[in-house]
Design goal:
Length: about 500
Amino acid sequence: MMNSKLWKWIYVALTLPLLGLSQNVAASLEGTFTGSANITLQCLGPAAGPVTVTGSAVLVANGTTANITLEDSAGDYRYSGTGSIAQTGTNTFSFSFSGPALINTGNNILDGGYTSFVNLDVSSSDSVLTRISADNVETFPPTPATNCANIKITTAISSLSSSNATVVTSDSPGSTVTESVLFNTQIQNAVSGISNRVVGALASVNSPTLRPSFSDNEFKLEGMTGLNAGEGIGIPYGMWGNYSYTNYENDLSSTAFDGSSHGFLGGIDFGIFENTVLGVAFGYEFADIDTDFNSGNQDTDTFVIAPYFGAILSDMLSVDFNFGYSHVGYDQYRTIGSTRVTSSPEADRWFGAFNLNAITYEGNWVLGARTGMLYASSTIESFTESNGTLVAENQTRLSSVNIAGDIAYMYGNFEPFLNLVYQYDFQFQEVIAATGPQPENDKDDLLLTVGVRYFESSGISGNIEYSKRITRADYDEDRISLTLRIDY
């Protein structure tokens, strides 16, 4: 029976990373937001104009202060102002910017002798700042003096989108949506798959105080099986392989896609030090996706390499860590009228994950818990489509924490199990639809897994499992996985 005081410390360690997520904190405005602005210049004395130019608007906020820059491509107007952020509601903010401007009046250029004020009230939702007040209007006598006694400037700023969001239209390449939506779950599946194998390897290290019962799930710590039985090699080792089939569907019309993937993951690990394993995993995945939102299709080939490490801390605790690199090649098209626009971008991904695992036994029942952290980044290089459209480089970052529970029952060489993982993403790439319904951009989800594990004393073990991702709006994912491990 597990010591109750130790279990309390385990519980604190496993839940501490998520405590901050349950706190009610005031909304904060941070990040870079971009959009457009219509700028109208008019002379009131003598009356002339007005002249309206279309420019860009960039707002950079750090939670307490913000800077806004407005400019047009012709160089007739440029303004940069700084102001404090005033929170006026749960998700509403007000700004009063002050700063120098450059204005081309047609006869003179005012180059900083003129200081302007821009007031802006916005509502923040889904990484979009939407203006909630009237356009900013300012009238002033210019300095230095011009032949215009008073100049009137009307600034109409549009909605501003976060730079950590992808804006999607029906003309966007398929990778614009799938990279933002699927990157999250693909990385989770790859990282958890490797983590499962890490502690599967720990099941075979020489730790006689641990009960043999485990092959796949990261919660399991076991005694020695066949790892140390190898003859002809000085270091015990094990090899494993995994096949998975995943089906997914996003049924929101503005970002809709559906497809499936076949994944292969394998590795080899060594018990170089006592109660530890060190290994490397290699993987390949092929996906075929219909990108309904742009009447297109996408095939992807993904290659993965990931070193990993695991260590047993006690008869109840273990840690595992993996980091890796993957390369994704896209072959995709979208349809404009009757014309197919093709492209073949490539993406480079880096990822790392750390988990703390705990386990206890009650008769034939096996109870486990886990908490972990994940960071990943992906960069799609800039590319040119077949119609000459240049698509800029796109970067996606993911940072998340997770907490999980596992329950299993040992029945001879078999172990049916149920596993539930909660994941919270505190940094991820959001998607904004230029038209049509907006994505929910969920920050969390649940992954439910059921399956059966099998082990025998000869060192052969395996498992088959089915998992379903739930609670993400407009997105469904189902996965079947089969694993085989041999220890020597």
